[in-house]
Amino acid sequence: MVYQGLPDYLHEAMAPLVIQAKVDKETKAIVKAADDLAAYHYSLSEINVGNREFIDATALLAKRVSKHCEQWPEVNEYFTSQFPACMQTLDELSRPD
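The structure assignment produced for this chain is given below.
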């Protein structure tokens, strides 16, 4: 059961979030966009360390992320303003501008 491990008093509060039939379409779409962004980040990271097995997945995810950016201004804002920093090394992030 979905609630296994949760105290009984949380079951009702968590149901709208964990039971897919109770999650509205907009929330599902935003969560999907976030999931694709995370997968895209991971696939880029794998390519950066030389794992060529992620090349096709990265191309597919890039298309998905692009569609999410077109559909959701919030996703586009994150992708253009914050995502590039996610791909920087610690040295790059700590350099004074």
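Interim note for the steering committee: The chain has one domain: 24-94. Residues 50 and 97 are 29 Å apart (CA to CA).
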